[in-house]
Design brief:
Helices cover about 10% and strands about 45% of the residues. The protein has one helix at about 1-15; strands spanning about 20-25, 30, 35-40, 55-65, 70-75, 80-85, 90-100, 110-115, 125-130, 140-145. The radius of gyration is 31 Å and the shape is elongated.
């Protein structure tokens, strides 16, 4: 009986796993056994904000240069023609028109670049995309977008 008890105790102690203390910091795991595991740093990708309304969708703005912006998206516009204006809340700094690759009722794609600079450093620039009414020339379906 003594040898079997001794064998049982020997088996119990030999199968016992060694535990070690693990210290975790922001980017590494270090154990008492001096094994160092480095966690990979994954860069955060900026997700472009999409703007939309009844006539415009999937509109994104990418800052290309200090005062240059690339605008992409889709529009469901009569005769594939829409207008835009950049304003600072008081003045229209720049305006123009663009074409999509398809007219309504299809969603046509557009891609254009504007170069605009603030007149007043403390102002905020907004790009407004809109359709011009064939009836009275007024702005319809305005889509305001913050530039900077």
């Amino acid at each position: 009986m003594k040898p079997s008890l001794f064998l049982l105790l020997l088996l119990l102690f030999s199968c016992n796993k060694k535990t070690s203390d693990v210290v975790e910091s922001n980017d590494t795991l270090v154990s008492v056994d001096t094994v160092k595991i480095v966690k990979p740093i994954i860069p955060k990708k900026e997700i472009a904000k999409e703007y939309s309304n009844e006539r415009f969708r999937k509109v994104t703005v990418e800052k290309v240069d200090e005062h240059k912006f690339n605008i992409k998206g889709e529009a469901q516009i009569f005769e594939a023609n829409f207008n835009w204006v950049v304003e600072d809340g008081h003045n229209e700094l720049k305006k123009g028109f663009e074409m999509t690759d398809a007219g309504a009722p299809e969603w046509g794609k557009f891609d254009f670049t504007i170069d605009v600079e603030k007149e007043d450093e403390n102002s905020t620039l907004h790009l407004i995309l809109f359709e011009v009414s064939a009836k009275d020339g007024s702005r319809q379906y305005e889509l305001p977008i913050l530039l900077y």
